[in-house]
Structure of Olfactory receptor:
Amino acid sequence: MMSNHSSATEFCLLGFPGSQELHHTLFAIFFLFYSVTLTGNTVIIVLVCIDKRLQSPMYFFLGHLSFLEILVTSIIVPLMLRGLLLPGMQTISLPGCVAQLFLYLALGTTEFALLGAMAVDRYMAVCNPLRYSVIMNSCTCLWVVIVSWAFGFLSEIWPVYATFQFTFCKSNLIDHFYCDRGQLLKLSCDDTAFTEFVLFVMAVFIIVGSLAPTIVSYAYIISTILRIPTASGRRKAFSTCASHLTFVVIGYGSCLFLYVKPKQTQASEYNKIVSLFISVLTPFLNPFIFTLRNDKVKEAFRDGVKRYYQLLKD
């Protein structure tokens, strides 16, 4: 515990409860997930860059999404793994805590903006195929990505600044595996109610606001697909959207439970479980969602493996 007149200059992350054996088991599981996440998403980025069949807006956005997934999980998981492997509490400095929280939220917001843009892209491809190549040209795609990154980073400056304006004098123990905003606010001796309400409104604006174009786009997409006369045509049209839709359901579902709530200081066990979905499970599933359900990516991967095997033989 700390004096009521001082604020924490470093924090101790309590991480996961349990024995050292349990920690070692969790370390092995999360390390496997992290390794697959890095490898799978890197493979997608490389394929999008080198394979001509994947030179389209859909895969351009997918490459950036995979890059975001690598960054999001790398901000959280290495420190979490270190805490599981080493006995005792994991310490993090105040500037380190600020940087971790800001990057985590900014990259997550960028991802939401990009997912909304990908939904509009799928709408254009299915509902306006004749105008698709004209509207979704390389310049448009580049600007969409730039705006997504700018929006993600600029929109999280005030929320993080407001979080760290409070005095953390109750304790410096964070009952989490990273600098979670809700657990940080629990440590404050100040009245955080108004700030929590503003953060809730901003979360609604960002998450629900980026979800709205996705819902509208898929309403038009489903309506268009249902009017296709043949079953094979309907299947082909929907297959171009299935991967993105699956990822949207998993990603948005987790974040709606974690951030869109008036009271940020939720139970730590609840926050840990949902945070694991966002920072570990979703990035891990991303390569499988976009490869197992996408014939072009699977073909590009098979051809890439064959070329690599030929180079090894030569």
Observations:
- Residues 105 and 156 are 7 Å apart (CA to CA).
- The chain has one domain: 10-313.
- The chain is about 75% helix and 5% strand.
